[in-house]
Amino acid sequence: MKGYGGLLRLGESESPAFRVWMDTAHPSFTVEVVSIADGAEVQFSNMWRQADGREDEWLNNYGMLIAAPVEDDFVLRCSDGYGLALNQAFDDLVVRIRLVRAL
Predict the structure, then answer these.
(1) What is the span of the domain harbouring residue 7?
(2) Could you tell me if 27 and 65 lie in one domain?
(3) What is the pTM of this model?
(4) Which residue ranges of the chain lie beneath pLDDT 70?
(5) What beta strand segments (E) does 11-60 contain?
(6) Is residue 16 domain-resident?
(7) Is residue 48 part of a domain?
(8) Number of helices and strands (H, E) in the chain?
(9) Pairing state of beta strands 73-81 and 61-66?
């Protein structure tokens, strides 16, 4: 995830961008928005780390299907881009994001 016009916090680290890997991250975690400027945005992208350490993103038939939010809950269904055709099930990686607004 990458922020433009703001600063994010994950655990004790602060940065405008984080890479969170499914094999090292907790199943559930919180990313906080520490500061934000007018017009700021947060971007999410699925990346894939290969056995040789190479990271792929936006590859071949890569795609992301975003389910319509229900009460600020989003489900991102991702295809990793490998193969001759798009994985139309979009089930290579599925992530749920919940937006919690500050009081």
Answers:
(1) 1-43
(2) no
(3) 0.73
(4) 1-4, 84-87, 103
(5) 13-15, 31-43, 48-49, 55-56
(6) yes
(7) no
(8) 0, 8
(9) antiparallel
